[in-house]
Amino acid sequence: MLSPHDIIIKPIVTERSMDDIGENKYTFKVKKDANKIQIKNAVETIFGVKVEKVFTMNMNGKMKRMGKYLGRRANWKKAIVKLTPDSKSIEFFEGI
Protein backbone atom coordinates (compact mmCIF):
# COMPACT_ATOMS: atom_id res chain seq x y z
CA MET A 1 0.00 0.00 0.00
CA LEU A 2 1.34 3.41 -0.96
CA SER A 3 1.45 6.19 1.59
CA PRO A 4 -0.23 9.51 0.68
CA HIS A 5 3.19 11.17 0.40
CA ASP A 6 4.19 8.63 -2.27
CA ILE A 7 1.14 9.50 -4.40
CA ILE A 8 1.42 13.31 -4.31
CA ILE A 9 4.85 14.15 -5.74
CA LYS A 10 4.78 17.96 -5.77
CA PRO A 11 2.47 20.94 -6.32
CA ILE A 12 2.47 22.68 -9.68
CA VAL A 13 2.86 26.45 -9.40
CA THR A 14 2.07 28.28 -12.65
CA GLU A 15 0.02 31.34 -13.50
CA ARG A 16 -2.93 29.22 -14.53
CA SER A 17 -2.81 27.03 -11.42
CA MET A 18 -2.66 30.15 -9.23
CA ASP A 19 -5.75 31.56 -11.01
CA ASP A 20 -7.59 28.28 -10.37
CA ILE A 21 -7.12 28.67 -6.60
CA GLY A 22 -9.91 31.25 -6.69
CA GLU A 23 -12.22 28.43 -7.84
CA ASN A 24 -10.94 26.06 -5.08
CA LYS A 25 -8.86 24.04 -7.59
CA TYR A 26 -5.32 22.94 -6.77
CA THR A 27 -2.85 21.30 -9.15
CA PHE A 28 -0.38 18.54 -8.28
CA LYS A 29 2.10 16.26 -10.00
CA VAL A 30 1.13 12.73 -8.96
CA LYS A 31 2.41 9.18 -9.32
CA LYS A 32 1.82 7.89 -12.85
CA ASP A 33 -0.18 4.81 -11.80
CA ALA A 34 -2.32 6.53 -9.12
CA ASN A 35 -6.08 6.61 -9.71
CA LYS A 36 -8.58 9.32 -8.77
CA ILE A 37 -9.68 7.63 -5.54
CA GLN A 38 -6.09 7.30 -4.32
CA ILE A 39 -5.37 10.94 -5.20
CA LYS A 40 -8.52 12.10 -3.38
CA ASN A 41 -7.65 10.13 -0.23
CA ALA A 42 -4.03 11.37 -0.31
CA VAL A 43 -5.01 15.07 -0.55
CA GLU A 44 -7.62 14.69 2.19
CA THR A 45 -5.11 12.94 4.47
CA ILE A 46 -2.15 15.26 3.89
CA PHE A 47 -3.92 18.63 3.92
CA GLY A 48 -7.01 17.89 6.03
CA VAL A 49 -9.56 19.14 3.47
CA LYS A 50 -12.61 17.65 1.72
CA VAL A 51 -12.26 16.92 -2.00
CA GLU A 52 -15.28 17.28 -4.28
CA LYS A 53 -13.80 16.16 -7.60
CA VAL A 54 -10.48 15.05 -9.14
CA PHE A 55 -9.45 15.70 -12.75
CA THR A 56 -6.43 13.79 -14.08
CA MET A 57 -4.43 13.99 -17.27
CA ASN A 58 -1.37 12.21 -18.62
CA MET A 59 1.29 14.64 -19.81
CA ASN A 60 3.75 13.59 -22.51
CA GLY A 61 7.40 14.44 -21.92
CA LYS A 62 8.89 17.13 -24.14
CA MET A 63 11.41 16.31 -26.84
CA LYS A 64 14.84 17.66 -25.90
CA ARG A 65 18.11 17.82 -27.78
CA MET A 66 21.72 17.87 -26.63
CA GLY A 67 23.81 18.64 -29.70
CA LYS A 68 22.96 16.07 -32.33
CA TYR A 69 21.33 13.64 -29.88
CA LEU A 70 17.57 13.60 -29.41
CA GLY A 71 15.87 12.52 -26.23
CA ARG A 72 12.62 12.85 -24.38
CA ARG A 73 11.74 13.89 -20.86
CA ALA A 74 9.76 11.40 -18.81
CA ASN A 75 5.97 11.22 -19.14
CA TRP A 76 4.07 12.28 -16.00
CA LYS A 77 0.58 12.65 -14.58
CA LYS A 78 -1.15 15.85 -13.46
CA ALA A 79 -4.13 16.04 -11.12
CA ILE A 80 -6.39 19.04 -10.55
CA VAL A 81 -8.26 18.69 -7.25
CA LYS A 82 -11.48 20.65 -6.63
CA LEU A 83 -12.33 21.19 -2.97
CA THR A 84 -15.85 21.38 -1.57
CA PRO A 85 -17.24 24.93 -1.09
CA ASP A 86 -17.30 24.60 2.71
CA SER A 87 -13.71 23.27 2.85
CA LYS A 88 -10.88 25.55 3.91
CA SER A 89 -8.05 26.32 1.50
CA ILE A 90 -4.76 24.43 1.39
CA GLU A 91 -2.28 26.39 3.50
CA PHE A 92 0.73 25.42 1.37
CA PHE A 93 -0.47 27.69 -1.45
CA GLU A 94 -1.28 30.72 0.76
CA GLY A 95 2.19 32.30 0.79
CA ILE A 96 2.75 32.04 -2.96
Automatic annotation (TrEMBL):
Q: Name one GO molecular function term.
A: structural constituent of ribosome
Q: Which domain of life is it from?
A: Bacteria
Q: Which UniProt keywords apply?
A: Ribonucleoprotein, Ribosomal protein, RNA-binding, rRNA-binding
The answer to whether keyword NAD applies is no
**GO CC aspect terms:** ribonucleoprotein complex; ribosome
Q: Which GO terms describe its biological process?
A: translation
Quaternary organization:
Part of the 50S ribosomal subunit. Contacts protein L29, and trigger factor when it is bound to the ribosome.
Report the sequence similarity comment from the record: Belongs to the universal ribosomal protein uL23 family.
Q: What NCBIfam families does UniProt report for this protein, alphabetically? A: PRK05738.2-4 (NF004363)
Function statement: One of the early assembly proteins it binds 23S rRNA. One of the proteins that surrounds the polypeptide exit tunnel on the outside of the ribosome. Forms the main docking site for trigger factor binding to the ribosome.
Tell me what this protein is called: Large ribosomal subunit protein uL23
Q: Which organism is it from?
A: Alkalibacter rhizosphaerae
